[in-house]
């Protein structure tokens, strides 16, 4: 049996076992297998609804985590392109030129040991719910066979994500739609966005844009700024009052 089919069978078995662990654990198994099966150095799965609702489910290493956080902080990157258009985003040589859709992310990602990016949409049935993001430290394209394997792994990631429909996480409802659940990394970002919506009477997209602009302009992570707002360490009227974010 091919290793990708062994992975699929293992995910199915884990999801069927009582007390086998959380869906996050199963997603982690898929990410680690992705690194073994493909010529990539790291992989992450992030759930998405739109540019304002994204959560890292699992990242195989620190660079994958940094890339996922950078994309959410900036609101641009290959994950958003793959999610919106529903197809793979393949960048075999990031240094060859900044993709026009996300130049700021490409410039910021250059600080990481990343030379190539390959991102794939993840769907549960007809609902697009996540992306599988991979990178490697050397440039080069995926072969047709490797691309086929990557698409199969993305399908298995969708299967693994179905384990988040139950238990303590409750990240997905019975129809595969995303919902807020325990342990989400960006919970405080969503809370801070809600506070800005109420304080400045902004639509959600504009409130999140304010947060992102403030974080980028002050050289801080979106997570740090959101945490300060929720804890009351950063006053909304001082940071976001007036016409400037």
Automatic annotation (TrEMBL):
GO terms for molecular function: RNA binding. Residues 152-230 form the ANTAR domain. SUPFAM superfamilies: GAF domain-like. Keywords: Transcription, Transcription regulation. SMART domains: ANTAR. InterPro entries: ANTAR, GAF, GAF-like_dom_sf, WH-like_DNA-bd_sf. This is ANTAR domain-containing protein.
């Amino acid at each position: 049996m091919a290793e990708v089919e062994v992975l699929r069978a293992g995910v199915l078995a884990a999801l069927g076992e009582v007390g086998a662990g959380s869906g996050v654990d199963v997603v982690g198994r898929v990410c680690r297998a992705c690194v073994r099966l493909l010529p990539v150095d790291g992989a992450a799965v992030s759930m998405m609804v739109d540019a304002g609702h994204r959560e890292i489910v699992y990242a195989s290493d620190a660079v994958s985590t940094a890339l996922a956080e950078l994309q959410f902080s900036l609101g641009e990157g290959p994950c958003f392109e793959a999610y919106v258009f529903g197809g793979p985003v393949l960048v075999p040589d990031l240094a060859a030129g900044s993709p026009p859709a996300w130049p700021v992310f490409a410039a910021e990602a250059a600080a990481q040991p990343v030379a190539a990016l390959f991102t794939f949409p993840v769907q549960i049935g007809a609902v697009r719910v996540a992306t599988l993001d991979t990178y490697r430290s050397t440039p080069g394209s995926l072969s047709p066979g490797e691309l086929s394997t990557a698409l199969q792994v993305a399908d298995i990631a969708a299967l693994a994500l179905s384990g988040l429909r139950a238990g303590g996480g409750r990240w997905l409802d019975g129809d595969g739609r995303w919902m807020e659940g325990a342990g989400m990394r960006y919970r405080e970002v969503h809370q801070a966005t809600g506070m800005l919506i109420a304080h400045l009477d902004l639509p959600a997209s504009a409130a999140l844009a304010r947060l992102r602009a403030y974080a980028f302009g002050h050289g801080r992570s979106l997570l740090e700024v959101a945490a300060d707002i929720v804890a009351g360490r950063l006053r909304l009227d001082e940071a976001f009052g007036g016409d400037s974010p």
